[in-house]
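Box 3.1 A note on notation
Throughout this textbook, protein chains are presented in two layers. The first layer is the amino acid sequence; the second is a token string describing backbone geometry. Keep the layers aligned when reading.
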Amino acid sequence: MRKSLLLTAALVFSSLLPACKRASTETSDVRVVQVPVPVGCQAPAAAQTDKPAAAAAPTLAKAEPAKPATAPSTKKADGSALRVKRLVVATDVDRSSRRPEGEATSFQKGRFEKLYAFVELENPAGESDIVVSFDPPSDKSEKGKVELAVGQSPSWRTWAFSRSFDETGEWTAIVRTKDGKELARTAFEVL
């Protein structure tokens, strides 16, 4: 009885082996499951031979998961390829057309809420950053220092603003790369 049970198990394993090999190309994890034969059941006639029991099916190694595609580099360009095409100071920016409004070189204190430094750049390299600041007439520190992302484009338009024009006199809007290299500047007067 025990011998026929072993033979039945060997037949089940040997009949599953081709299916396991076929399945190993379809899935990444194949498990061999032993199916017990109930006591009192007869093994098929073909299984009742004097051949030794076949060895159990080999355990298949788990396939390695596929490596993900290499993500695009998130490293930004150093800004050396940036070229400022236009830098103006204005009282507003039309968001839909991305154009300055109220562009001038002198502004009457109290007649504006904030002033914008509107910048148009050429950027043939990858994404970069610029910093826009407003230098006051006195020796006080710069105002703003707004960091802006600049995408790759032949004509990228962006802007920064400040409300801190507390002094009258000649101010300067300055555009720099993130590492401090000056790209452009323009003077304007607050009266």
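Residues 23-28, 55-63 have pLDDT under 50 and may be disordered. The first strand starts at residue 83 and ends at 90.
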